[in-house]
Amino acid sequence: MAAFCPFRIGRKFPTYNENVLPDIFAAVSNPARRIILDELRQGPRTAGELTGLLDLSRPAASEHLAVLRDAGLVREERHGRNRVYHLQPAPLAEVGTWVKHFEHYWNQRLDALADLLDEEKPT
Questions:
Q1: Buried (b) or exposed (e) across 92-119, using 16+ Cβ within 10 A?
Q2: pLDDT tens track for 15-69
Q3: Which of 102, 100, 95 is nearest to 29 (CA)?
Q4: Which terminus of the chain has fewer Cβ atoms in its 10 Å neighbourhood, N or C?
């Protein structure tokens, strides 16, 4: 577990606890990790490129990349001193399947909004 440093402003707890099994939902719950996944949709990126995107320290960015790697969402490839990350989107199907169960709620609300807007249209 990371030590707490009273002089550094930022998080006090790690974003990932190694005693917890990798969880796709936990991995995508963090905005920084979603940014990484979005960027990797465009193609492989080095760890340095991803770190620059996030405006985070290297250790914090490495921690986020480790969470994504442990969840099976990215694959790491070493090229000399560089680490290149590739998107592995297959595990995201689990998220999509779960979210799909709630689609009818969104559709009902959008239909109700459309009905309300139709009622308020001037004739």
A1: beeeeeeeeeeeeeeeeeeeeeeeeeee
A2: 555 555 568 898 999 999 999 999 999 999 999 999 888 888 889 999 999 999 9
A3: 95
A4: C
Strand-pair partners of 84:
46, 77
Q: Give 57-90 pLDDT, tens digit per residue.
A: 889 999 999 999 999 999 999 989 999 999 999 9
* Complete domains list, the chain, with CATH: 24-120 (1.10.10.10)
Residues near 40 by beta carbon (within 8 Å), at least 6 away in sequence = 74, 85, 86, 87
Count of residues in the chain: 123
Alpha carbons 32 and 64: distance in angstroms, whole number = 7
Closest C-alpha among 32, 2, 31, 28 to residue 14: 2
Cβ proximity of 67 and 16 under 8 Å: yes
In angstroms, how far is the first alpha carbon of the chain from the final one?
65
